[in-house]
């Protein structure tokens, strides 16, 4: 979002994908898998459309089909021991993207301040700006990218309306500990802020030691927090755009109020298939994790061999690499050359930061590039080959 001209610009994902296509390149920019989700899941969506099971071909109830909300509640109970009333504590959304938009619009009034950890998923800044709120950030910095809890506490003012949490985190792969989440919930409760916890990477855990907890499993969180999930990442179907919001009836109802007017409802057949997957993933989560882990290790080793300093993540789709080992340029400049000269698309982390960070040449985030490894292993090997040949 460009405040100077009050226009919404094409996202870094669109620009990188377009550049990779123009140069006949390999797109390790936008995070989407190039192997689609399980066949049984896709058949369930096809069956819902052709037999009108559900029934799913006309408008669904605004908050989502009851059986979809029950499946989300059952999933949260099974994985996290969190009890939710599917009737009023679960809301279906058009991907996590709509969940984020509706949540920020619900809780961040114009003139308020929204706190996020930087780097942050780009839609947080854009939606905060559209809400007329100001995004302020607290750093996550290499090599561990841990949230700075003292800095978060210091950043809260009487204007703070929300704290945005994203764990497992895009782009660093950091997984917040329970202690960190407890501290964040405490700070939000003390400051009268609402926590939005974006948990779309919950099933892409690559390091068993780093356990993911939904924010709603933290004592007291139900008073201040909503959690967001998405089927796109969990089931490798990013085009389906099935998301959900969970939390107390009071908070979810406020998000629902906004969501009624952003899409009202979408995707009945996808809700039908995802409800089945949430009830029983038939081993897909574990299988997907194993493939991602191998992809991560392959890409991380290749980038390190090419001379970049690599930060191997505990979760998610992305490896970060510091370009200073191979160039004096910023990651944004290097990424532009990498895609046009070597045909490899990657996302400079500076696209996921505030302008003030981008303008600070001392800030390490300006030298980090994000590479997606949710790709076939021959594609990753090809990308590494192109990068090394070009360097
Ligand atoms: N949050 C984060 C942190 C993401 O990386 C993404 C993109 N995958 C989204 C939200 C959007 O999710 P969806 O595709 O379900 O809209
Ligand atoms: N979440 C994906 C990423 O971070 C992209 C989503 C999008 O294109 N908006 O790469």
TrEMBL record:
Signal peptide start-end: none
The protein's matches in SUPFAM superfamilies, at most eight in alphabetical order, are given as:
PLP-dependent transferases (SSF53383)
Aminotransferase class I/classII large domain residues are 25-356
Task: Keywords in alphabetical order, please.
Answer: Aminotransferase, Pyridoxal phosphate, Transferase
The protein's required cofactor(s) are namely: pyridoxal 5'-phosphate
- KW Protease (keyword) present: no
Q: Cellular component per GO?
A: cytoplasm
What are the protein's GO molecular function terms?
Answer: kynurenine-oxoglutarate transaminase activity; pyridoxal phosphate binding
Q: What is this protein called?
A: Aminotransferase class I/II-fold pyridoxal phosphate-dependent enzyme
Q: Which organism is it from?
A: Nesterenkonia alkaliphila
